[in-house]
Amino acid sequence: MTTEPTIAQRDTQPYVGITERVTIQNIGMVLPEVHSQVFEWLGERGIEQAGAPFWKYNVIDMATEMEVEVGVPITNEVTGDERVKAGVLPAGRYATVTHIGHPQELMGVTGELLKWGDQQGVTWDMTETPAGQKWACRLEIYHTDPREQPDMSKWETDLAFKLAE
User: Does domain 6-162 fall into CATH 3.40.50.300?
Assistant: First the structure.
């Protein structure tokens, strides 16, 4: 089940995350482990998360590699280290859609959201580069805790893609 897309204003959001280069073939194996590393880093410092964890797609080239940040929102800005980056998700207008279903369905949902945006005449905050599409902020936000809901077909995920100003 997927909701109708909406456009909403989002405020800035401090976060911490780890950036990885992945392929479409290994993304599902690599990034969940990286999320564990981010949660471990937060726990070692006594920092609580302020929202659902996310994957932030920075550069996308489906044929080769993608640069993806695995992040967790936090309340206040902190200093990162050599492995964990501290950052701020940008404020702005975002096209957002919620999907309840298996994460493997998100590629199709993404295509539907992009098509919807094109039909609405929105401009994505994205540029084409030799390395692929470079996004200002393209998020998969995971609201479901796998420890509480092991049935992945019931997971709730938001897609939130920043629009150009």
Answer: no
